[in-house]
């Protein structure tokens, strides 16, 4: 892993546009007064997992029940559908309870968030798909666990499934009876619980991990900051107009998503200020390069650039550098393409201005950004002939090697 000294952390924080940055060795000190719960134990979320479902999935895996569970949950898709029959009773009871929205969820805000997501979908697509996607490869715990879990062997399929989470969260009906988010998030929670039991049995994982059990509450918060918080920061930095009620609603949809993924309310930021402060503490200091992350980034960027829409690998590399900064670009050894870098530096702000109605004429090179978004969509949202992504299924093993 790249050694991050304080100066490195500061430079990286600035490159990513993070508000303030703390030292890498700082212990957990984010105050629960900035959380949804408003108070808490102060326990470091790195040591908090999802006990009840972790135990249920561990016993289901040990007893060979997972293939039957996967069959039972396959047709369970919409929020309004009843929890399927045929599940072990403790799992059925868990899902029955946990598929409900938390008491603090505000449907008016969630509907507003859905509208906001629709209006900003193009930016979110770039920010989640390229920025967040590649940032995840320099989050060592995430990169290693994704690489060594079963899904790491087929990154296109895995990326498509993760995109479907974002898709379901951003859908206009996400939280309505006809939407799918409450089901998708619960299925994801089951997958994460299974991974917590499986990965510690992987010799590869054991050889590289600095923790035994992956996907703690802190790890999930880190992923939120590399996607939601990062998107919020960049959209502000890029001058994209956002009403404060919309920003609030956007945060609210993430707050609910985090709760549905099993993060305790005492860790879920109650405001964007609190979220950015938490991000500076939990995300920036841990960024670093691992062999697994480098390999994953290559696969992800290769998948996009192999879609033949005239988006060159150089342009893609430079767009990643534009979003994440040169330090991360250098770690990943993304080859420079200075012509593309210049095009992006001038063209991207013009593209935004045109889309926001601030420029009367279509700017030169407009099509390049449109082609890029199509290429990302084709690489990761390819829903095949059935029109559906591969359904989220609970793994029963790890990546072989
Ligand atoms: C699986 C989303 C956080 C590691 C999944 C899946 C989704 C998802 C939708 C199911 C897709 C699949 O089966 O491949 C999310 C979201 C997160 C989050 C929205 C936070 C906001 C994390 C974190 C880690 C992680 C923090 C690790 C540190 C994994 C792994 C799998 C998985 C290893 C299983 C892949 C397999 O099937 O082998 N996640 N995740 N996730 N996630 Fe997450």
- Rg over C-alpha atoms, rounded to the nearest angstrom: 20 Å
* Mean pLDDT reading: 89
Overall form: globular
Oligomer: single chain
Distance linking N and C termini: 21 Å
Associated small molecules: protoporphyrin IX containing FE
Proportion of strand residues:
under 5%
Order of helices and strands, N to C? HHHHHHHHHHHHHHHHHH
Total domain modules = 2
Signal peptide: 1-26
GO molecular function, one term: oxidoreductase activity
Keywords: Signal
InterPro entries: Lcp-like (IPR037473), MPAB/Lcp_cat_dom (IPR018713), TAT_signal (IPR006311)
Give a description of the structure:
The protein folds into 2 domains: 58-78 and 97-133 and 140-286; 291-380, no CATH class. The longest helix is centred in the middle third of the chain and has 21 residues, at 217-237. It has 18 helices and no strands. Helix 2 (51-62) crosses helix 9 (181-198), helix 8 packs antiparallel against helix 9 (181-198) and helix 11 (217-237) packs across helix 13 (272-282). With 401 residues, the protein is mainly alpha-helical. It has helices spanning 6-15, 51-62, 66-73, 89-98, 107-119, 121-135, 140-148, 155-170, 181-198, 203-208, 217-237, 244-260, 272-282, 291-305, 313-324, 326-331, 338-355, 366-380. 45% of the residues are buried.
